[in-house]
Amino acid sequence: MAKNSRQAMIDAAERIVAERGMTAxxxxxxxxxAGQANKSAAKYHFGSREGLIDAVVEARMSPVNxxxxxxxxxxxxxGTPPTARQAIEALIRPLAAATLGRPDSMYARFxxxxxxxxxxxxxxxxxxSAESFRRxxxxxxxxxxxxxxVAGWRVVSIINxxxxxxxxxxKHERTEGQTEAIVSDLVDTCVAVLxxxxxxxxxxx
Length: 205
What we know:
By secondary structure, this protein is an all-alpha fold. 74% of the residues lie in helices and 0% in strands. α1 crosses α4 and α5 runs antiparallel to α8.
């Protein structure tokens, strides 16, 4: 029962932030939205507002990181250098599955709100430091047709583009075919960003 009440509050927090922004998130509002009669339920489970945000990111990102790790392991097992498309798909598709592929998901919209709040960036950064993300980031940087510094910037641009695109379509009804088309086009676009020639004047380390 405790697990169900905790999950209900995680779902409620995701929904509140996605629909109303970070300023609307309070432990009381989360308890009310989750139907919790116990006035100390959120404090008991999460400790603080920041602890609640961390719990939302943990709950949603852990499956994403596991799925990405599996994709990267599959690429390694092939024994041949991955293509830019394979690397980009390993970055994007696990998150797309957890957002556009999850009924009633608001997680992409939640992430856009959280990543735009400087005070909360550390919560997302912790999960961007997961092994699967580090592996795919290094892979993408190595495949970019650009100096090392520029390649790093492009990874940031690709991540931002992915989040905004997934958040944009997450709130719309879609068929499975439309969802696949949206994700495939996002991959196409990000591959183009990665492979575009660079005119930036930076030195290669």
